[in-house]
Design brief:
The chain is α/β, with parallel strands linked by helices. It is built from 8 helices and 10 strands. The chain binds adenosine-5'-diphosphate and magnesium ion (MG). The site of adenosine-5'-diphosphate (ADP) has 11 residues, from strand 1, strand 2 and helix 1.
Length: 242
């Protein structure tokens, strides 16, 4: 398994006490698999991804990538792409500087060549290096965020609603790009989306997160996932060949 999450528990301190954002979640994804995660707002999807990227700590359970659970700090082999490409890129950084930053953090050389290659890989002309985020369209900005994640050669790409902030007309372009990158780089991916068409386009298996299984949204989602069989813990898996 490339991703092993066993009984993960994530808790945030609040002014009045604490909130359990993720309770006892287990999930396993094979190398090269695209695993879909759907569910209600507030059910802990983003928090789970952030914990996998080690941006938040675990209160209980375990997470392993490629069989190892290194103790702390952001890791190079797991990269994350966020919903909002405006928020993900520093407004005063050129594309060049945004792409150079992760290389510097991880001590990677050959920076100019890597930056040119990364832009080409996401379908952007080399001239984009010297532009600022405000000079880019939403789709171009998301391409830069994807390039920024790929430039350090991760094995796992975590996608948190990567197309939901984009115009419908460019969502398909970004999904095609992600599908091509998955094939070419043999990446393992976890994709969070509330759009089942998006999940169906990219994913081999899905899991549904819910705070309350009687909630109307979850109920409709379960109905919409016909052809998937339910496993314990609200997890859904598509039947082989289904
Ligand atoms: N940094 C934080 N501090 C306190 N509570 C948080 C924090 N991040 C998330 N939460 C809470 O954790 C729960 C899960 O949030 P989130 O992972 O963003 O859900 P989702 O992505 O499924 O919408 C929510 O109740 C949210 O308010
Ligand atoms: Mg979220």
């Amino acid at each position: 398994m490339m991703i092993d999450i066993d009984h993960a528990h994530i808790r945030f301190k609040t002014k009045t006490g604490h909130v359990d954002a993720v309770r006892e979640v287990s999930l396993h994804a094979q190398e090269g698999e695209v695993f879909g995660l759907v569910g209600e707002s507030g059910s802990g999807k983003s928090t789970l991804l952030r914990a996998l990227a080690r941006l938040v700590p675990l209160a209980g359970g375990a997470m392993r990538i490629g069989g190892n659970a290194a103790p702390c700090g952001p890791r190079r082999d797991v990269q994350m792409v966020f919903q909002d490409p405006y928020g993900a890129l520093h407004p005063r950084f050129t594309v060049d500087k945004s792409l150079r930053e992760p290389l510097a953090i991880h001590g990677i050389g050959d920076q100019d060549a890597r930056i040119r290659d990364a832009l080409a890989e996401v379908g952007l002309n080399p001239a984009f290096r010297f532009r600022y985020p405000y000079q880019l369209s939403g789709g171009q900005r998301q391409r830069v965020s994807i390039a920024r994640s790929l430039i350090v050669d991760p094995r796992v790409l975590l996608l948190d609603e990567p197309t939901s902030a984009l115009d419908v007309s460019v969502q398909g372009e970004i999904l095609n790009l992600l599908r091509r990158l998955h094939r070419e780089r043999k990446l393992t991916m976890i994709l969070v989306s509330h759009n089942l068409a998006v999940i169906g386009f990219l994913c081999q298996r899905i899991a549904v997160r819910s705070r309350n299984v009687r909630h109307e949204y979850t109920r409709r989602l379960l109905l919409a996932t016909e052809g998937y069989t339910r496993e314990s813990g609200g997890r859904l898996e598509r039947e082989p060949g289904g």
